[in-house]
Amino acid sequence: MKILGPEGGTIASDDGATVSLSVPQDVRVAAHLLDGAERELPARFAQVQWSNGGVVVRAAPPGPGEYTLRIYSRRVGQEEDQERDAYDWALDYRVVAGPNSTRERGLPVVWDAFWDMGLETASHPEGLIDSGSELKVTLSAPGDILLLARLLDGEGRPLSEDRTLAQREEEGYTVRAAFPKPGEYALKIYAKEKGDLGGEYASAIEYAVLAESGSEAAGYPRTLVTFAEAGCRLIRPPEGRLPAGTPQRFELIVPGAETVAIINDGNRTIMTRDGETFRGEVTLSAGDASLAARFPGESSYAVLLVYSVGGR
């Protein structure tokens, strides 16, 4: 590794600090910001970005004061050497945030997959987001990248899958989250390449969220693997829990599908087709209601998403 800048060990700035490094391809870098008592601050106050074959490390101090930007490294590509999984302490910078410095909300926590797959933040560049009962985050993503999201509570425990909805829109992805009650949450987004059938999603980016309100009844339909891999987009209804006994209008975009059907209480209702857009209206019975698609060359339907239907 080589330091490209700054050369001095102290960085005085009112708007954060940036360090540029030249790093071999088989080396990975991590960073943390420490306060004046050498205590690690939350991960959102330091971020590592791969850029033009090197690494840019950013620090966003939460307010005036003196901090330490601690940078770690490890070598990859030698899986048989388990000790190389741990990061080693590489170097420190002293960061001085002056009295006029802004109180930073930090940066999103990102993993290598975020940069490797060409993702970019579009709506929220900050790492801590204030929200109401629902949140909408948008990311720029290449057309061959798939995303999914999970909502975690303040203790890092994953909540039910119907608390998030990730779908492609325009040139990127929209990720929605519905909070069950006021409090602290983490919105974690995963990514993988579309052609990687059966491959696992890799951690890409995580936001810290402070929700001022919430609803236990709120949520979205549960999406299955085919929904993401087909590049589907749900238009209506976005609510995951629907009442029984009243007509419901459904509309979604399913690229490449021949037929899309609404399946509820053992009945299958074929939706009308207009190009890649499918529409239908059904009075639902209590239980589950699924939207399923049949693609060319397939004899059976693949379930895209599932609604929960309640009583009258």
Query: What's the helix count?
Result: 2
Mean pLDDT: 92
What's the assembly state of these chains?
single chain
Give me the CATH superfamily of the largest domain: Immunoglobulins
Share of helix, binned? under 10%
Largest sheet: 6 strands, mixed
Span from first to last CA? 65 Å
Total beta strands: 27
List the uncertain runs. 80-84
Shape: elongated
Under the CATH scheme, the architecture of the largest domain is: Sandwich
Work out the strand percent: over 45%
**What's the CATH topology label of the largest domain?**
Immunoglobulin-like
The CATH class label of the largest domain is Mainly Beta
Number of structurally distinct domains: 3
Structural category is mainly beta
Order of helices and strands: EEEEEEEEEHEEEEEEEEEHEEEEEEEEE
Describe this structure in words.
With 312 residues, the protein is mainly β. The chain has helices at 112-116, 225-229, and strands at 2-5, 10-13, 17-22, 27-34, 46-51, 54-59, 65-75, 88-97, 109-110, 120-121, 128-131, 134-140, 145-152, 164-169, 172-178, 183-193, 202-211, 222-223, 233-236, 241-242, 247-253, 259-264, 267-270, 272-274, 277-283, 287-294, 302-309. The chain folds into three domains: 2-97, Immunoglobulins (Immunoglobulin-like, Sandwich); 109-211, Sandwich (Immunoglobulin-like); 222-309, Sandwich (Immunoglobulin-like). It has two helices and 27 strands. The longest helix is centred in the middle third of the chain and has 5 residues, at 112-116.
